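Table 4 source record.
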Amino acid sequence: MADIRRYACARERAGGARMAALAICFGLAAAALAPAAEPLLDLKTFMPSSEIAPGMKLIGKTCYRGTEIREFTGEVAGIEHGAFAGGNLIWAMLEGPELGPHSVAAGMSGSPCYIDGRMIGAVAYGFNGAQKPFAGITPIESMLQVLELTSAQPHPYENELNDGQATVGVWEIGELRAMAEEARPPLRSPRQVDLADLPPRAREAFPDREGLVELAPLSMPVGISRCSPEVYEPLRRRLADWNMTLAPGLVASGTVDGSALPPLEAGSALGMPMMIGDLTIGGYGTVTYREGDRLIGFGHPAYGWGNVDIPMSPCEMFALNASYVSTFKVGAVATPVGAIRQDREAAVGGVIGRVPRMIPLRVRARALETGREREFSYRLWDNRYFAPSLAATGVREAISATDRSDGDSTLRLEYAIALQGAEPIRKEVFLASSAGPAFAAGSDFRSDLSLLLNNPFRSARIESLELDLTVSARVRQTAIASVTADKEAYRPGETARLTIYLQPYRGPREKRQAEFALPSDLRDGEYRLYVGDASGREHLERDRAPGLFTPMNFDQLIEAVRLNFAGNRIYMTLVESDKGLTVHGQELPSLPTSLRATLEESSDGAFIRPVTGKFLAESVLSGDAEFIGSTQTTLIVNRNASR
């Protein structure tokens, strides 16, 4: 395997088999993201990796603070040929005032490097836990292939929604929600590399280590404007699950105008805004090269999605967070000035000009005790993985900024999700908690968004999001204890007068009177009257007709999402035993026995579910507390009952 040795190092080394392992380690799924044919290099501007040798001195450019571009230096340690499919990797030890005894900083991805005034590529790779800034540089000839692909022209199918329906499988709504919650961007795991396979200078970064070390593309830090811990922590944990680092918020809320910052150029911080407005969130790296309105950066993929349409912006940098464990730039994205159009193995490619659509989110918040009211406006990256968590973060920030984020609380949340091609979905959530409103805020809202955007039936486009919320500083919660009726039997059409016994949180027992009108066409017999909370009412619906919670297409999914039982209501439901079916999600109640048997035995059996009850009447009581628990009683109907 000696023919696979790839390094052009100052000293030839034995161990070709280890070189082969390292070459394989760098094969990062490039086949799926194959770039265009290699362009001809302007040799006055660029230096191909074939001209680079160990010992050559380089100068790099990057931004550490503000928008100022500063230089660093370095020395080439070696070249790994064939590190990628059709591409090489340049190894270099970097030096500079900000490049201390730690690994290369995340956020430096894309920092251009030059030898004798000619660009050789961009800083892109580093080693976890290194004690010196030893970097992998993506050669410029590989990155320019991405520039050739970069265009403002629409990608194939970019503006089309897939209206196809799922043809295989039947999912219950709970399973669909779980699948949507698990949806995440494809992750790029670090690679294990033997120190003995690296150039001699690389081992200087690991003076106390032997054996394997982790090599990975420099991660993309995600900056956030100043916010409360209850806002920061859930998002930090979510991004950590996706191998992304959330930098601490150092600036006030609000997004800087991107057009007011200096134009993007080689060495500028390059941002990908995820959320702008009253809270700013976005990832960033560095611009490598700009040609007219087109540019390339990062030196590795952001997500590896190929054709993309991601908001692109300049950034401001504020600090460098340095440590042996994780070193990263701290900064903030500005409003978009263009779009990232390519996300490939060697670089991202962007175009200045047209800005991708973002989802508008408006939140109106009110603190019940103080009367304080505020309105928040955000715009979210239209992305199925990130938009749900970003929207929930916006809700938490609104609560934290309006009232407080910890302690006893009750939250009332009303929201509307406007979908392209459908009526808006409107729902109400009412929750009481001793763990603070921000803890529970937005979870149902986020779950609905995630389900819609990650459903298995067709693409869904969110047009806008609106929320109204009210926060109380008390735990307003009441348990439903029991219910009694005023008579032993009722005539059809008569009104039953009920007494519902309630137990408030840390309060004396109460009772509430309610009237329940019986239908005039009831037959004589016994009927079950359910009296309970929102959760119990939903379970009653599931037990009665489970097929309604097994959507077969996108329209049925929307109807399942619309189903809403608010927590501040007591549901009184009269139920009669009945047998029917749901067929392909459509309810067919009170079927004749023969027809029911025929349908159950048909070849469509997987799409048929039983209906085991019939709702005859329902009445709802509203209150200013979250009701929990359920009970029931039996109502007897007799046409000869006393009046």
